[in-house]
Amino acid sequence: MSVMSTILDGKKVAAAWRLETQIRVSQLLEHQVVPGLAVVLVGHDPASEIYVRNKVKQATKIGIYSVVKRLPEDTSEVALLQVIRELNADPEIDGILVQLPLPDQIDEETILLAVDPNKDVDGFHPYNFGRLWSGQRGLVPATAAGIMKLLADYRISVAGKNALVIGRSLIVGRPLAALLLAANATVTIAHSQTQNVAQLAQQADIVVAALGVPKYVTSDFIKPGAVVIDVGTNRVDGKLVGDVDFDSVASKAAFITPVPGGVGPMTIAALLSQTVDLAQKRQ
Ligand SMILES: Nc1nc2c(c(=O)[nH]1)N[C@@H](CN(C=O)c1ccc(C(=O)N[C@@H](CCC(=O)O)C(=O)O)cc1)CN2
C-alpha cells in the first residue's frame, strides 16, 4: 500500500517566521536601532543574482536596512578584502554575508576569515563553525538553521533518531550534521567517497539530500515512514529539480520537503532572523 507523505511547507513556515522577525524589527525601531545587512556579490552567477535579490527584497520588506556590494567577475582578492574591511567597520551594518560561490581567482577561506566573526551572519567564519561543532550557541549557517526550524515547527523530534546527511559542504552538510548532533540525533555524513549510500539511507529515520545531483535519492533509499529533506536546487532543462525523486519518495516517506517551496524559503527566513539577533546584541 502506498501512503502519501505530509509535505513540509517551507513557504508557509518561512512566511510566519518572517512575520515574527518583522515584529522584532519594529521593537528595535522603537529604540532607534535599524538592523543592517550587507550582501557582497562578486560576478554574475544567475542563481546567485536571484538569491541576492530575494534576500534584499525580503529584508527590506520587514524593515531591515540592506546594501548590496556588487563587484565585477574579475575582482581581485585584495579588492574584495578591502570591501569586507569597510563593512566590518561600518556601525550601520550588523550582518555581512559574501554570496557563494566566488570566482576561481578568489580563495573562499581567506575571504570568510576576513569577515568580523561578530557580524558573520552566515556563520561560515571558522570561529563560529568551531563554536557550532563544540555545541555552543552562536551564528549558524542559514540553510541548516532553516531545516532545524522546519523540523521543529512540524514537531518532528530528532533526539535518538538516525540521521543521514548526504553531502559535506560548508554551506549545508557540515553545519546541519552539527545541529542534528546537538539535538541528540545519531548522525552519519555520506559524501562522494561513501560506499553504499542507499544501504545507509535505508537505516535512516531522517535523510537529508544536499549533494547537488538531480533526483539522486529514489524510493529504494527510503525506509517507510522516514523524514526526507531535499536541499537540492538543480536546473535541468530550465526547470528546478531537487536531489530527491519527489514522486517516488513521497509515497514512502512520512514527511518530505518539496523543491521549490521547502528548504529554500527557510534559508532566507533564517538569515533575516539571525540579522535581527545581531542587531539586538548591538542594542
Ligand atoms: N553566502 C551564502 N551563499 C550561499 C548560500 C548561503 O546560505 N550563504 N546558500 C546557497 C544559495 N541560497 C542562499 O544564498 C539560497 C538557495 C535557494 C533559495 C530558495 O529560496 N530557493 C527557492 C527556489 C528559487 C529558485 O527559483 O531558484 C526554493 O527552493 O523554493 C534561497 C537561497 C548557495 N550560496
TrEMBL record:
SUPFAM superfamilies: Aminoacid dehydrogenase-like, N-terminal domain, NAD(P)-binding Rossmann-fold domains. CDD domains: NAD_bind_m-THF_DH_Cyclohyd. Residues 8-122 form the Tetrahydrofolate dehydrogenase/cyclohydrolase catalytic domain. The keyword Protein transport does not apply. It catalyses: (6R)-5,10-methylene-5,6,7,8-tetrahydrofolate + NADP(+) = (6R)-5,10-methenyltetrahydrofolate + NADPH; (6R)-5,10-methenyltetrahydrofolate + H2O = (6R)-10-formyltetrahydrofolate + H(+). Residues 141-282 form the Tetrahydrofolate dehydrogenase/cyclohydrolase NAD(P)-binding domain. InterPro entries: Aminoacid_DH-like_N_sf, NAD(P)-bd_dom_sf, THF_DH/CycHdrlase, THF_DH/CycHdrlase_cat_dom, THF_DH/CycHdrlase_CS, THF_DH/CycHdrlase_NAD-bd_dom. One of its GO terms (cellular component) is cytosol. NADP(+) binds at G167, R168, S169, T233. The keyword Amino-acid biosynthesis applies. Pathway: One-carbon metabolism; tetrahydrofolate interconversion. One of its GO terms (molecular function) is methenyltetrahydrofolate cyclohydrolase activity. It comes from the Bacteria. It holds the Pfam family THF_DHG_CYH_C. Its EC number is 1.5.1.5, 3.5.4.9. Keywords: Amino-acid biosynthesis, Histidine biosynthesis, Hydrolase, Methionine biosynthesis, Multifunctional enzyme, NADP, One-carbon metabolism, Oxidoreductase, Purine biosynthesis. One of its GO terms (biological process) is methionine biosynthetic process. Catalyzes the oxidation of 5,10-methylenetetrahydrofolate to 5,10-methenyltetrahydrofolate and then the hydrolysis of 5,10-methenyltetrahydrofolate to 10-formyltetrahydrofolate. HAMAP family: THF_DHG_CYH. Homodimer. Belongs to the tetrahydrofolate dehydrogenase/cyclohydrolase family. This is Bifunctional protein FolD. The gene is folD.
